[in-house]
Design goal:
The chain is mainly α. It folds into 2 domains: about 120 residues; about 325 residues, Neurolysin, domain 3. It has a 3-stranded mixed β-sheet. The protein is globular. It binds zinc ion.
């Protein structure tokens, strides 16, 4: 065995444990942190981010990787791991420790400000923090370097190799396809008033746990808690946690966030704990991550097969709310298509308009053509233009997502890319697994999960999103699978 390779693995493992500690601090901040502990937590997170950065950019680690690469045969798992880590480190080398520590400090404060702004329903509370974040991100893009658009440098962190110009093309084509589809049928609204009846918190909480169990989430290697914005966080493959939020008068809220985060968590639990810290045990990219959450959320969770099996259990759990609602009415209600304000609660067609709006705004904020002080107005205008709706307040507008307070610019596009990958993967799974829909309708989700484990999870980050997609489906990413799926499903529902 290549000794340098073993040394590389040992060092990366240690760095990944430090990242796990940093994630634990973040998890605690979003769930339990006392109000006055924000300043201390910001310092702690800044310190550990600096330490991780120092370990990763230590010239000794790069030297070990270079030596190991000399002894590794080309295009093996070893060489793929080494080359990917090498690329990551070269990217990190472009950022100095002061920048990394400052970023962590600003982000931690900014998250607090975002929460306060939401409580006051006032974007102005968050705006000065967002200005600092934009400035950070702009300088980060300069340090990383880019050829066409500064946003490319930021995108690369979440979706390696993706370019702004490429996304513009993909989104333009998708928007055209979606608008054409939405125009083919009159959106006679399905009655979904029962979804807004009173569903007690305890019942919803228990339902969430049960659905996660059905999906195959391992509670001995994870747990669920409540948070302002639902998320999945990984300390390593043996500790993958999810959060959800519950609205007692909106049954959509918990259900979709729970299945969505469950999809992310299954991916993380399916990565190899043994190779922790190296690309082989990491997610391929954020869009592949989103492909997993969107696949479970939409293709399973919003599908008729799943509810054929699960609906009687749901009715038993909420007898007074659902006794007069049959499974067809429930299916129609959970697939109601209607332009709405909140991205995370949007139907799977108009959802992408929310993403495209954020992409357009982020691009402009990063290239400087849009100022933070004009963001609210611009947001509201775009909601009118893309979705035809008025934004009544900041909570349901520009303050709804946590991402900008985390400094995550370039993240949103991965939601749409993930949905496109999800449709393409699900189509392949249907071909590969005999009677898959029948299994799903009898509550047997194991064949689908094993398929995902084998084709997606076990591959880690040994391949790029594009390579993985070609390996699994024999083709590059192609939006026709998503559009075909959407057309078949919604034509049946609305025509
Ligand atoms: Zn997600």
């Amino acid at each position: 065995m290549n000794n340098d390779y073993l040394e590389y693995k040992r060092k990366m493992h240690a760095i990944s444990d430090m990242s796990g500690i940093s994630s634990l601090l973040q998890w605690d901040q979003e769930i339990f942190l006392p109000a006055k502990a924000g300043e201390l937590r910001a310092r702690q997170m800044s310190l550990i981010s600096g330490m991780i950065h120092e370990q990763l950019t230590n010239p000794n680690l790069l030297a070990i990787i270079d030596r190991a690469l000399k002894n590794a045969t080309t295009d093996t798992i070893q060489s793929r791991n080494l080359n990917t880590s090498r690329k990551d480190i070269l990217r990190k080398n472009k950022l100095n420790r002061t920048h990394v520590e400052r970023s962590a400090l600003i982000i931690s404060h900014s998250y607090e400000a975002w929460e306060n702004a939401r409580k006051e329903n006032n974007f102005d509370v968050f705006a000065p923090h967002l200005e600092k974040i934009i400035e950070l991100k702009r300088s980060e893009a300069d340090m990383i370097g880019f050829e066409e658009h500064p946003y490319d440098a930021l995108l690369d962190e979440y979706e390696p190799g993706m370019k702004t110009s490429n996304l513009e093309r993909i989104f333009r084509q998708l928007r055209t396809g979606l608008n054409a589809l939405l125009n083919t049928f009159p959106l006679v609204q399905k009655d979904d008033r029962f979804m807004y009846h009173y569903f007690p918190k305890e019942g919803q909480w228990e339902l969430g746990l049960d659905v996660l169990r059905e999906m195959g989430y391992d509670f001995e290697r994870g747990r669920q808690d409540l948070s302002t914005h639902p998320f999945t966080i990984t300390f390593n493959a043996d500790d993958v946690r999810v959060t959800t939020r519950i609205d007692e008068n909106n049954f959509h809220e918990m259900l979709w966030s729970c299945i969505h985060e469950g999809g992310h968590a299954l991916y993380e639990q399916g990565l190899s704990a043994e190779h922790s810290g190296i690309p082989q045990s990491e997610a391929a990219s954020l869009s592949i991550h989103e492909s997993q959450s969107r696949l479970w959320e939409n293709h399973v969770g919003r599908g008729m097969s799943f509810w054929t099996g699960y609906y009687p259990k749901l009715q038993t759990r909420f007898p007074s709310q659902l006794k007069h609602v049959n499974v067809n009415q429930f299916y129609a209600a959970i697939n109601r298509v209607e332009p709405s304000l909140i991205r995370t609660n949007a139907d799977e067609l108009t959802y992408h308009m929310h993403v495209i709006i954020r992409f357009e705004l982020e691009k402009q904020l990063i290239d400087g053509s849009l100022k933070v002080r004009d963001l609210r107005e611009q947001w509201n205008e775009m909601y009118k233009k893309y979705l035809g709706i008025e934004v009544p307040d900041d909570m349901r507008g520009v303050l709804q997502d946590v991402h900008w307070s985390h400094g995550s610019f370039g993240y949103f596009p991965t939601y749409t890319l993930g949905s496109l990958y999800a449709a393409q993967f699900f189509n392949q799974a249907q071909k590969d697994i005999p009677e898959m829909e029948k299994h799903i309708s009898t509550g047997n989700l194991a064949p689908l999960l094993s398929w995902l484990r084998k084709h997606v999870h076990a591959q880690g980050r040994l391949y790029t999103s594009e390579e993985l997609c070609e390996q699994i489906t024999g083709e590059k990413l192609n939006d026709t699978y998503f559009l075909k799926y959407a057309q078949t499903k919604y034509t049946a529902l609305y025509l």
